Model the fold of this input.
Amino acid sequence: MAEERRQKQCSVVMPTESMKAMAESVGVGQLQEDSCVALSEEVSYRIKEIVQDALKFMHHGKRRKLTTNDIDHALKLKNVEPLYGFQSQEFIPFRFASGGGRELHFYEEKEVDLSDIINTPLPRVPLDVSLKAPKEQQKSEFTEPLKVVKPGQEEEGSIQAKGQGATSAEGLGKEKGSIRIKPRSTHELSVEQQLYYKEITEACVGSCEAKRAEALQSIATDPGLYQMLPRFSTFISEGVRVNVVQNNLALLIYLMRMVKALMDNPTLYLEKYLHELIPAVVTCIVSKQLCLRPDVDNHWALRDFAARLMAQSCKTFSTTNNNIQSRITKTFTKSLLDEKTQWTTRYGCIAGLAELGPDVIKTLIIARLSVEGARIKAVMEGPVVSNIDKIGAEHVQSLLLKHCASVIAKTRPLPDVVDQYRTDYGYLGPMLCSHVVKARAQAALQAQQVNRTTLTITQPRPTLTVSQSTLGVSSGPRTPSIIKVPSSLALMSTRPGTPTQPSPPTTKYIVMATSAGAASTQQVITLSSAQSGSPVTSTVPSTPSTLQPLVKLESSSTAGMSRPLQKYIVVSLPSSSSVDSKGSGVLPASTSPISVEQSVKLERSESPAASTQSPH
Amino acid sequence: MAAVQDGQVESDAEKETKPDASNDVAGNSSGGARSMSPNAASSASGAAKAAAPTGPGEQQTLLAVLQFLKRSKLLESVDILRREAGLSDELDESQTNDGAAAGSGAGSQGEGSVDAASLLRRVSVGGAAATNIAATTTSKGAEDQPDVSIVLSAYSQQGDPALYQVYYSGLKNFIESVLDCHRAELSQLFYPLFVHMYLELVYNNHEHEAKVFFEKFSGDQECYYRDDLRVLSGLTKKEHMKGNETLLDFRTSKFVLRISRDSYQLLKRHLQERQNNQIWLIIQEHLYIDIFDGMPRSKSQIDSMSGSLAGEARREANKAKVYYGLLKEPEIEVPLDDEDDEAENEEGKPKKKKPKKDNLGSKNKKQDPNAPQQNRIPLPELKDSDKLDKIMSMKEATKKIRLGPDTLPSICFYTFLNAYQGLTSVDVTDDSSLIAGGFADSTVRVWSVTPKKLRKVKSAADLNLIDKEADDVLERIMDEKTASESKILYGHSGPVYGISFSPDRNYLLSSSEDGTVRLWSLQTFTCLVGYKGHNYPVWDTQFSPYGYYFVSGGHDRIARLWATDHYQPLRMFAGHLADITCTHFHPNSNYVATGSADRTVRLWDVLNGNCVRIFSGHKGPIHSLAFSPNGKYVASGATDGRVLLWDIGHGLMIGELKGHTDTVYALKFSRDGEILASGSMDGTVRLWDALKAFDVETDDFTAATGHIHLPDNSQELLLGTYMTKSTPVIHLHFTRRNLLLAAGGYNSQ
Done:
């Protein structure tokens, strides 16, 4: 076969007819046959020569296709004037025609009307050359050029890492696709990313609280998790689906904490994954049953927490296009209005609505207070149907009182008359009245000591709580003066089986330099329970310029020690700015071993008295 | 004729015998004649004015004239001629016999007159007598001049065109019938003989015969000569031969074959028996047979070395000493990180990194015996900023990961989007902070890949205004308004095929189809110099690792060495037989490697401009080169998709990496030399275990003969293949921390 081809190579020459045709086109008629043969041979040879040179230009241009430019350059090499006006980026559309035993290839040149060209709008300007590196790589390169990443974090290093060719091919392929429309697709993860994903998910739903804290911290802070986001989102949505059926409250709580951590990560944007996350979260709010023993387990905390998540995502992602907030509100309201709705779901709906803000409470909940009150009354005072219903009614009642009181306190004109309340709100009226009175009193106090309270809020850092709980300290007796742990913190209990009981903090805070210590701690209760992360920081900047030393009374007992030790720890806050930064970092889930260590170090260094007391 | 050539300057003769000696080896058969030949050659060239390296032929001509005179009883003339030629009687006799033996089969009959007749016949094959002899000799003499018409006239001798086929197939039958061990070696003859016979036919206007000849035998040739055959096939007329470069290559250089003594004897005996003058003539005139003692080589050994345009490299071409060692690094005190960290600790800030001791300084203390002298090539003095940069790179180097088969580098691919297939070259600075691309639309674009944007220096008027005493004067001279992520450099008038950053990142070189090399300032983003010298496209250019010098090579087959402050080249490296497609500096800046379309890699000494190594073995134009960081090895990649590894010290091929399916456009060793990365037109990056590849036993014998058995272990050496979707890989770069950066232009079709 090779020989055949070579024969062809050797013998291919331009047909003499072409010579004649070309001669005619330049005005030479009647060309001798001999001249034609001689010419065609010569022309064939020269054309071959030029094409061979043009190939060189193609090779150096790193292309596989010969272009007209290559031919031009080859002509230039031979000192021949290139063909002007014969530019074509792509292949030249030669057309084939045959007839009368003749075969012809020709280049169709259309006649165009000049006015057509003038009148047609200009074509779009072609895109300019741009350089593109994998997103993750670029990021890490910006922060720290080409760092050698630790094995644990390698997934953020480069999109295409060692491993099988297949994964890297995908990785490389991704940015190729982006020249047109970037398809939103999931990508193969590199080996490191797979490892990371496995570790993180296992830690998040595993039994070790310390590991979980670390994992959540990683999710909440690490950049470059973007690639894994779809997987996390699927993990959560599937996890909720399975665990709701199995009534596994602990796992649901862990999954919700993952959602929280994902939302906290500033480098992630969840909008594309809300279709998976929102159903999961809403399930955790309104599901009829979330745990095996609804009478004992505190699934109410989960509902509260999930409701807060829902509110946060509404705030962040709701746009006029997706209408998340109004759709969610409608869903809640619909089941709230339904007569047959169970107490658990009812609780979830109310919690979900209440978290959406005072306006929603005012228009949707307060208006229904009397109806709900009647329903509660039926359960509380009527024939005992079941214990579960009663507990549900109680929780709904306290929830309603909690949320409505603060709103009513702000909106309702002052004289709080019990009877008036009864007529306005029905069964719940009298209780509401007393709550409102209390709320008004608190508001007044708050107004007096805004500065102090905002400062102290930042103190109950969850890190401290966790450092305690990881040490395995059993719950001690709660003293009345102890700060009430925010319900969100209750989720961090060491015992996954019974998250109903919040792990009581063994740390006591005494705020120095306050005249009314009890009053100030009272305020911590209210504010810190309302604190769910973001809104607190806004009040923080108004810290006083003076330093606020803080004494921490810590009853710690490490695993090896039998005798609990009492330590007084004075924590002084260096400046308002650092308080600010700490305050913004106070999130229930963001715990890190480093900060624990730091706080321990602080204890050692700053309280010599304590170190002399303790044998270690 | 001898009289005409009277008055030759004797002193020249001695000098010119040197090339002759080797020719004698080829031309003369018996051992006895060989031992005498230098002597004879010196006298012969003393007499023969032409003095070209075609000694034996002229000697024989001379002897033939003597014989003729003797026969014609012109004894006086004989004496005069002999005296002038300095030939002794017995030499005369032995040479006569010898020459006859070599020239034609008739020598065995041993009679003087017959010898002379046969010699005469041989010399004047063209038919005519004395006049033709003169013509032949002069043409031979001028052989080294690339004047085409003179060169071509060597083909004027001709036999019966109809017999060419018979000759060729006779030889073919013979070679196919010899023992296997010789067959492979003798098969090497096919291609050069085929080419030269074809050209002779064409030259003598036997167009039809030439065509038939080509069609009949071109299929027998090794597949790697396909490209050349394609060129040949188009060449069917005498007029075409003028100005054809490929043809010129065949003529100006002898095709080099390496054949064992046994095989050569066999061939010679056969040709003598068959009285195959035509072939013998071609062998003598156009081929250079490098005879070695020892076992004939196997087919695979031959195949690995052959393929270049002019056959294998001559053995003596690779004998020169090459100082491949690295230069001593200037001693720079590297401030250890300790102090900084301590200061930080006092402030109570958390420590981020553990300080590491710098051990690099001690390593460089020893002088490498293979290293050139420090001042062999004058190198530019280090500036303060260079020292700072060195310190930076040393610090970075301490953080690099050691690569190996188990720890492969991560690869980051920089894709040029919307380049519309116009991306022709890419380079990355050593510290990986800038990327430059050369484009077919004559532009050069520079990108910053760090957050630091590219800024121009302020205009002269603005520069007058700034405070020159300020500490941050270097910062103040920059114009903040011009900050951008990329800059475009306009100036070329043709595609930019080569691009190279200076080591200090202040300059950028670009070479283009327009025949110029341009030097750009990366401070002002303007063109500083256009170096004109190549009149044809310049395919590649590269800065020396120490800056200041740079090398360029292009279509004119001459690589030029330049210094940035000279507008004319300092050295011209001439010797390649086709376009120089890539150029690369040795890490010690004393040598330059060039790859060419003649399928050889040559190494040139910057000091004296000599060619010190010729590596043959590629089967296609070479498009990429890379030196190992220790300077001992060089890797080359070609259009055939193979990567070959060469030991510079021994001048040997030591490895072949097969795997790519298209041109290898990029090669790079990791910073420690453990991994070789190759990027190709086929859109893959492949990683090879370089340490294992270099770990081949080279005993003395192999080193002396250059016959290496290449293990076919490409698959074992291949550590990874990484595919892109549709992006040819045209540049590779290892960062100082051994992260691999690759670059290429996305191809949307």
